[in-house]
Amino acid sequence: MPAQPPTLQPWTTLARQPVLQAGDGRFLTVEYHTVQLPDGQVIEEWPWLRTPDFVNIVAETAQGYFVCFRQTKYAAQGVTLAVAGGYIEPDEEPLAAAQRELLEETGYAAPDWTPLGEFVVDGNRGAGRAYLFLARNATPLQPIAADDLEEQELLLLTRQEMADALAAGEFRVLPWATAVALALLRLG
Amino acid sequence: MPAQPPTLQPWTTLARQPVLQAGDGRFLTVEYHTVQLPDGQVIEEWPWLRTPDFVNIVAETAQGYFVCFRQTKYAAQGVTLAVAGGYIEPDEEPLAAAQRELLEETGYAAPDWTPLGEFVVDGNRGAGRAYLFLARNATPLQPIAADDLEEQELLLLTRQEMADALAAGEFRVLPWATAVALALLRLG
Fold this sequence. Notes:
Chain A has helices at residues 94-106, 159-167, 174-187, and strands at 12-21, 29-36, 42-50, 54-61, 66-73, 78-82, 84-87, 108-109, 112-122, 126-140, 152-157.
């Protein structure tokens, strides 16, 4: 047992110092924070990652198929299953970003949106927030207009196929697996 | 339709250049990679984050309770529910790290371990890999011996309480939510 009960007070940011800006800083800025703990202890040079907030969308068509991709992704070092998603633009609402990315990346639009949660990526260093969504009754509306560098193939999976692929580790990027898992739990 | 079918060839890393090492580099090193796409295009200064691989563990006791925490976490800007976890030491196997962290952080040990998957955190920039586990039939073995900076309270939640907390967004850090969601799906 701790000598004192936890106060569960948040840490306080006393100062922020940018130490690296990649390019124009849009995709990555590293800061050192000076952080004060509830007991008064001060930590200098706590690394903090500023990367864009992003959305991921699990989209179910009106026929009950799930709109996914098979794609290459640099950090996955090869092929992975994926769901739609992308960075939130400055001043854009997460839901609007999700609707935009679904349409751009898949050509689908959906009338029914359920938020699946908002999560900080790295509990210590930040690295942006993930806003996850379930879109239902999606229908194809326009050709794909994504500007992504990655090669990708659109797939329509049954719920069982998507669940099996998740369990087999085929969604290899963390927020994509999170979105699929939360969607499956929500759909019951 | 694309003019050419996707080859789904991985990108190639042509060069790596460290550009920032925080402290001794154990927790964060930033690199710029020179990356070649399958069509031959070369991208210079692709930011890449080296952070430690880590484990998270959803542990169910022999009585059917789930070993969780309520804790403060800097990036969550306040209180969040959490599961056990931590960084993998150099040359440590993920399962060994999971068993060590569960014991250190909760005092529990478990005989039954199920891997829930391995995921890269950031599909573009790396930022380490998450190795997620379900531990079953956990029993208390020793006092808590964690050296974490965060204040935390151990909680034993029923499966329904954990599922409700997940759906309510109370696991506010991405890999923790992923681990809980995958564990709930696995438990059926």
